[in-house]
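Section 5: illustrative case.
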């Protein structure tokens, strides 16, 4: 079968965004075949400078974080606060299908880059906007990161920990990746309509709303007031003890997921060799269990602790019951399923080091997987992109000399 054209071949995306959420969205569109031009200030995307936070080498020669969010893009450096820099950006927007940004509303308006202004010039343009808290409400102008708007105010950190412990340490980029993929879904819908009608739209996804959507099931249950949904909560008081982790003899945590408690009860008891509990009126059916939650938790916890991880997994497999080991990141990097399902790949960086990189989670059957290249250096594509816009080499040299644009001068 001949290779199929990538879904977004011919689509042009201009990205003026920093850190993770917006760039993650644009990276996914690049994976789908879009021509993505990333515009950075002369100082560069701040994500280029977060190496110490992530325990990795500093500099372009092995920048796995920047590569993760920016593979497949062309990187252009413009000072959009200058007349010529802004003019170059406008030329890019004039031929773009999609514009992605995370600049706060007041800054966009001052720069003339807000949607209301742009749609008058470019009516087909799809405007993808990443926000901390959304465009309405009293917090709309607050700065937002996934640690604050997603994890904290969005109801994740305040609830998802054992009541006797303390809030979890957030995983950097977790909320941003949610936002990036949600934004991509909205952009693709708006792009389809723009192709059909000639009218673009603004698509906004916020960290705050994304978190609320992600916890929506239990957030809605919380309003009924049942003690099992008033989190933070002790794992010993979760309404379904088949939905909490338990530790094996070799200190590995196993997460079971059997939401249909009554249907799974009899099948699980032989796994822990407690057939004597089948039909026990204290623990079955689930409605009876609610008066004996802590007692039942302790029984399961003690029984699981009699087995090693491999022994318990083997018994669960034999019973065809759903579970997974609570893997550390080191384990995920070696997980044969992660490699077999193309979740991971290898990329060689300019310093010669080969590192494992993560692919976006959308897989096509008849479309070849995108090449995974290292993220381009700051200003690496400035000259080539400006030349495509019609600038002469003399004009480009003049802009670079004036600080209105930069190209690659060194690899950090």
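Designed sequence:
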């Amino acid at each position: 079968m001949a290779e199929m054209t990538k879904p977004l071949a011919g689509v042009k995306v201009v990205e003026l965004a920093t850190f993770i959420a917006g760039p993650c969205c644009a990276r996914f569109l690049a994976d789908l075949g879009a021509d993505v031009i990333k515009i950075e200030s002369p100082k560069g995307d701040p994500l280029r400078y977060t190496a110490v936070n992530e325990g990795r080498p500093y500099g372009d020669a092995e920048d796995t974080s920047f590569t993760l969010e920016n593979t497949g893009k062309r990187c252009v450096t413009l000072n959009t606060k200058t007349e010529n820099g802004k003019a170059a950006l406008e030329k890019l927007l004039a031929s773009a299908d999609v514009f992605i940004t995370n600049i706060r509303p007041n800054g966009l308006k001052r720069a003339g880059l807000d949607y209301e202004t742009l749609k008058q010039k470019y009516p087909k343009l799809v405007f993808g906007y990443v926000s901390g808290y959304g465009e309405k409400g009293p917090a709309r102008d607050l700065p937002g990161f996934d640690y604050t708007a997603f994890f904290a105010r969005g109801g994740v950190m305040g609830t998802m920990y054992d009541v006797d412990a303390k809030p979890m340490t957030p995983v950097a980029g977790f909320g941003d990746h949610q936002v990036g993929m949600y934004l991509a879904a909205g952009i693709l819908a708006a792009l389809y309509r723009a192709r059909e009608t000639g009218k673009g739209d603004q698509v906004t996804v916020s960290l705050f709303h994304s978190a609320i959507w992600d916890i929506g099931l239990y957030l809605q249950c919380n309003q009924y007031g049942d003690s099992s949904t008033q989190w933070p909560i002790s794992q010993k008081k979760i309404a379904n003890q088949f939905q909490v982790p338990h530790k094996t003899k070799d200190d590995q945590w196993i997460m079971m997921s059997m939401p249909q408690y009554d249907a799974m009860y009899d099948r699980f008891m032989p796994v822990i060799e407690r057939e004597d509990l089948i039909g026990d009126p204290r623990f079955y059916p689930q409605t009876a269990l609610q008066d004996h939650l802590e007692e039942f938790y302790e029984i399961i916890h003690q029984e699981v602790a009699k087995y090693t991880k491999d022994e318990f997994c083997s018994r669960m497999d034999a019973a065809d019951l759903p579970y997974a080991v609570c893997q550390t990141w080191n384990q995920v990097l070696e997980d044969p399923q992660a490699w077999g399902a193309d979740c991971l790949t290898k990329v060689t960086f300019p310093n010669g080091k080969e590192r494992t990189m993560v692919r976006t989670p959308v897989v096509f059957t008849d479309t070849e997987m995108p090449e995974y290249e290292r993220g381009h250096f700051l200003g690496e594509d400035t000259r080539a992109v400006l030349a495509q816009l019609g600038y002469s080499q003399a004009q480009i040299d003049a802009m670079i000399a004036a600080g209105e644009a930069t190209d690659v001068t060194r690899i950090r």
